[in-house]
């Protein structure tokens, strides 16, 4: 999706005003430096639960591990906007994406460069919302609600650690920072 305007999760009027107040972008002091700076992949996912507290997992068509609804940010898209878009695309429903639970840095692994992973709280879905879920079929073959412990054997180890931290943050408040699914040493 190409769009000349940034996509974000906030009030469009306030965002436009803030962007205007920022003024003209600064010129590069050394031309070409911006193009040489590293780029990170960024992804955002949402922790959705059913009335029994189980987590909603999607079964991707392109990999053997479970995931939570979400995906990679597009150019000029905020993590919150991407999380909402991806949940809508993958599940076919609108869900209330709330507070940020976790930011996790992932190292380079194989062909995949390092990345930042955001997890937001999606709250508890009503029975009507659960019944309305329609997996998109291209990226998601099906969805299932599982207790986090039961899902761990079907998750990448880093995702299991990340979701455990996100769930802990959900229950105890705050926002967590992690590296490869673990809180860094102090």
Topology of this protein?
Elements: H1 12-22, H2 33-36, E1 41-49, E2 55-60, E3 70-72, H3 79-91, E4 100-106, E5 115-124, H4 127-132, E6 140-146, H5 148-151, H6 157-172, E7 176-179
Parallel strand pairs: 1-5, 4-7
Antiparallel strand pairs: 1-3, 2-6, 4-5
Structure in words:
The chain is an alpha/beta fold and 186 residues long. The chain has a single domain, classed as Alpha-Beta Complex (Nucleoside Triphosphate Pyrophosphohydrolase). Helix content is 29%, strand content 25%. It is built from 6 helices and 7 strands; from the N terminus they run ααβββαββαβααβ. It has helices at 12-22, 33-36, 79-91, 127-132, 148-151, 157-172, and strands at 41-49, 55-60, 70-72, 100-106, 115-124, 140-146, 176-179. Strands 3-1-5-4-7 form a 5-stranded mixed beta sheet, sandwiched between helices. The radius of gyration is 18 Å and the shape is globular. The protein starts with 11 loop residues before the first helix and ends in a 7-residue tail after the last strand.
Number of structural domains: 1
Helix/strand structural class:
alpha/beta
Number of helices: 6
- CATH structural class: Alpha Beta
Domain Nudix hydrolase: 38-169
Protein name: NUDIX hydrolase
GO molecular function, one term: hydrolase activity
Cofactor: Mg(2+)
From the structure above, extract its key features.
25% strand; 29% helix; single chain; alpha/beta; five-stranded mixed β-sheet; 186 residues; Nucleoside Triphosphate Pyrophosphohydrolase; 7 strands; two-stranded antiparallel ribbon
Give a quick summary of the entry.
The chain is α/β, with parallel strands linked by helices. Helix content is 29%, strand content 25%.
